[in-house]
Write a structure and sequence with these properties.
Rossmann fold; 2 domains; 6-stranded parallel β-sheet
Length: 339
């Protein structure tokens, strides 16, 4: 059986791009066995891809020898193996495992500062350019491996569920609001969150605000939305439940995180707040410009807010970075109300 495998970080955005790479291979080899290798959080990604039963999620890392052996037995001799790109240097262990799993001529990856790349890879792709759509890096890899790009549009299949809104006591029209990124270096202060939520309520008084996030975000979400018509689902909803809610939402307001990418893949219009780092590579026209709203309107995202002008000398990595916290929350709310 034809087998293809790609290594990815265990995040929603990166995993979705791995899925995009593999679904193009699937178009060429419909009976192939296809998998994404992650070092952790396989359960979350299996939930993410529950609507894509053709896709296998494989969790393996160097601290789990039995998992490595199982992966080697099941995936050795793969006709295609792609390691992921990174802003730094990919771990040598991932490159070596890719080499062990791939047939000769089948291993592709992206250049980094390592001096051993030319000895390991059959197809060594240029180091990705920061301000280039990440989707195009996947297309470069496909081209190098001789696989046609059959899909330009980024999509995701989900598992339809009955009664998800009722489960969380959500009635009427609602907006998904995702204000957490897992890191203060890509986050907003609680007071900024509240400013945005108050403005959203003022402009859309009949709309329920549905605040998503992880379990650790629930208390801050409750604090930011206190006294407002809001439902906090942070830490309570599975990814498939969240996806069902996204599909039924009026619009999604999100930081540059996985929830925003879920909305874009599912064809819902996200209003995105991003640091200067992700504004083009993840949200430029070559990334989601092929997607259209179900009404045939403009491409996704509906709007992108960033203050790249605050990072003229380059992005400053710190808690609550200037290019994010300087965004006008009133402007974000006003745009959301018009989508």
């Amino acid at each position: 059986m034809f087998k293809a495998l790609t290594f990815r970080p265990a995040s929603i955005g990166d995993a979705l791009m791995g899925k995009y790479f593999l679904e193009n291979i699937r178009a060429e080899h419909p009976d192939a066995r296809l998998g994404i290798v992650v070092g952790s959080r396989a359960g979350m990604l299996k939930d993410l891809f529950a609507g894509e039963p053709w896709l296998e999620v494989v969790e393996a890392n160097r601290r789990n020898l039995p998992a490595l052996m199982k992966m080697w037995r099941g995936w050795r001799g793969s006709e295609i193996v792609l390691t992921n790109y990174t802003a730094g240097t990919l771990n040598l262990s991932a490159k070596l495992m890719g080499r062990l799993l791939a047939k000769r001529g089948a291993l592709a990856g992206f250049d980094d500062s390592s001096s051993v790349n030319h000895f390991l890879y059959d197809h060594l792709l240029p180091r990705p350019i920061r301000d280039r759509a990440v989707r195009l890096h996947e297309c470069d890899a496909l081209q190098a491996l001789g696989v046609p790009v059959a899909h330009e549009r980024l999509t995701l299949q989900y598992v339809p569920m009955v009664g998800v809104a009722e489960k969380f006591s959500i009635s009427g029209d609602y907006v998904i609001v995702h204000l957490f990124s897992g890191s203060k270096t890509r986050g907003l202060e609680t007071e900024q969150m509240r400013t945005l939520l108050i403005k959203l309520h003022k402009l859309m008084p009949d709309i329920t605000l549905v605040l998503s996030g992880g379990a650790g975000d629930a208390s801050e979400a409750a604090e930011a939305s206190e006294g407002l018509p809001a439902v906090v689902i942070a830490g309570r909803a599975s990814l498939q439940e969240l996806m069902n809610l996204i599909v039924g939402s009026r619009v999604v307001v999100s930081l540059d995180t996985g929830v925003g990418h879920l909305a874009a893949h599912l064809g819902r219009p996200p209003v995105i707040m991003s640091t200067c780092l992700g504004r083009i590579s993840w949200w430029g026209p070559d990334q989601y410009g092929f997607n259209k709203f179900t009404t045939g309107g403009p491409g996704i995202p509906a709007a992108l807010f960033t203050r790249a002008d605050r990072c003229v000398g380059g992005h400053v990595f710190k808690s609550y970075p200037d290019c994010l916290v300087s965004i006008d929350m009133h402007a974000v709310a006003e745009k959301t109300a018009t989508v």
